[in-house]
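Supplementary Data S3. Sequence and structure tokens for construct A.
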Amino acid sequence: MPTIARAGAYRVFFFSNEGDEPPHVHIQRERALAKFWLEPVALADASGFSARELRELARLVEDHGEEWRKAWHEYFKR
């Protein structure tokens, strides 16, 4: 589970066995977890986050999407 970023209380990561899926990140805060596709940015799944917090996370993904896509592609060598 490579952690690619931390933003406040959030940890941004991907699972090393998910290279066959489209580029995405998981964002975790305590027991809350969300998955966002990166191309284009879209919420794939979430549990434990409020709608407001998910909107904030979507903005975070939009703001850092380019660097997180780069990290994905470098890690999975696509």
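Construct B, processed identically:
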Amino acid sequence: MLQAVPSSSELDELVSTTTRMRESIETVVTGRTELVRVTLAVLLAEGHLLLEDVPGVGKTTLAKALARTIDCSVGRIQFTPDLLPSDLTGVNIFRTQTSEFEFRPGPVFAHIVIGDEINRASPKTQSALLECMQEAQATVDGQTYPLPRPFLVVATQNPVEMEGTYPLPEAQRDRFMARLTVGYPSVESELAMLDNQEQSDPLATLKPVTDAVQIGTLVDHARRLYAAPGVKRYVVDLVTATREDQALRLGASPRAAIQLLRAAKAFAAMEGRDHVLPDDVQRLAVPVLAHRLLPSTESRLSGRSTDDIVADVVARVPLPVPTGHTSR
């Protein structure tokens, strides 16, 4: 049975909280409003976020700023080639006093897990996150432990052509709801950054504006947004088009369709709407779909990125015919 769409007061709470979070984060990450908005949408959609770009543009700073705005537990992982899976999930330690094993949880047992330079670890270590990201649990020595809710992995990675990196496996990339490129700031934003950080680190003074309990409530509000059958069909049409595109040798998975709709709901909720528009789906298509796709050899040789291919798919797939919306 479908739950009723969120009330106006519930949407007001969501908009107010996410606005305060966005304003707080933007005191540290200046001039990247759209980047911050998509980051918050991934949080509300219970997804995971992959930040990709060259070193020094603020990937880890964005992840830390997001964590600081929420009064919750935070785990930090610095991925290196010698990192082991147990360094992430935890280990059982034998206590001689009690003659029993005691589980010592790893950094994944936190509401927000910041994984720095994830593609510097071996594929074996990267794969330790698969169960955590998909099922919100971790299995150690045959024992399964639940992870806290909300649970968000914010991972950063350097471009694969940089020294000392491993490409993320396809299964790993598919578990990230969105991939964002931070990019270089504008001249004005970089000047403002120099002013803000000339004498102190703004991260040190960032205060929480919400907590894990409220975020969990807002996640439930966003989930209940109404998506018309035409909008759902539009999501499926976009995903299907990637599977049939000759420029790709691997299209988007069914998981991608589910996550695109959830992200669109979260984005719409942040706009104060109780329903999803095709515009929400279009705005999120590239960050949600592009990193899951594999280009054909011809596409790679011609220099076409998967971002370009998804943009072409969005441009050619027809929009759903409006049928009107009634809240229920």
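The longest strand covers residues 90-95. The radius of gyration is 20 Å.
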